[in-house]
TrEMBL record:
Keywords: DNA replication, DNA-directed DNA polymerase, Nucleotidyltransferase, Transferase. It catalyses: DNA(n) + a 2'-deoxyribonucleoside 5'-triphosphate = DNA(n+1) + diphosphate. One of its GO terms (cellular component) is DNA polymerase III complex. Its EC number is 2.7.7.7. This is DNA polymerase III subunit delta. It comes from Acidihalobacter prosperus. The keyword Transferase applies.
Amino acid sequence: MPLKPSQLSTALGAPLKPVYLISGDEPLQAMESADRVRAAAREQGFGERVVMTVEPGFDWSALAAEAAATSLFAERRLLDLRLGTAKPGKAGGAVLADYLKNPPPDTVLLIQSARMDRAAGSAAWVKAVERIGVWVAIWPLAPSEMRGWLVQRLKVRGLVADEAAVALLLERVEGNLLAADQEIAKLALLHPPGPLGVAEVLAAVTGSARYDVNDLADAVRAGDTGRVGRVLDGLRGEGVEPTLVAWALVREARLLARLATGGKADALWRGIPPQRRRPVEQAARRWQGPRARLLVLLAARADRVVKGQAAGDPWDELLQLSLVLGGRALFPPAWVLAAETGRVLA
């Protein structure tokens, strides 16, 4: 089973494993995890580093050649293989699997990859990594995790923020760990170690929150009305197409309705990390009974408005749908739907 980044330090004891795989799309955690592996390698005498970046036309025999080569400069080496968003394919997978059957002594292989889906994670070479090495899978932090992460990073810098200051900082940098790290570094430069309040954060931190449609789904599941509004505003400001937002909300409505009515939802779980499934199941409990099916009707109406097939403002419709799915409808959001179906969501 893949480790979390926070578990990597304990997996870097002496001696190092022959291979470490870091996968995920969150850049700060990926960068820091790879840095920890490199630092541990240096401390344990792996003095030479060979970097190989997989690009179109990459010759996978180069990895086998490096594995067979004897270092001229150091007894121990770190092979730093950067896949990025590339996939090894059949040829690369075979080379990696062969390498991992009999990894060269005095060599550590560090593989960095974008997020791996279920199919990629089932490849023979990945299974070999799990068998003889360490796989760290990185996921974006959930809002509750982000809060704890901010507090810990501030603490490392000697800053003790009060609740309001943490909430403001979270609002301004949510979903963007690189920006958060930079803002905390700035706060540490501007203020001596000790208490930190809202005024200091307000004066120093600019808004750099970054969202994707999964953040909106998280806010909906949590029933967090304020965050729903912030995320939707953020998505609109970043130029995200309303059709993409509608797609995410329609999927959410179908999933909640399916779970609420006791149906199987295997296909709809696709793309939702296991750690995020429990909040979905909890959100589905708001919609027990036949009224859950109205969620799908409301979502379908919003989808029609977004596609120009029904009258209305797309973003208003998406906000209404988000609030209803979150169980926090603040105004009669579905009067058109009520007219169409004779029923009202409340």
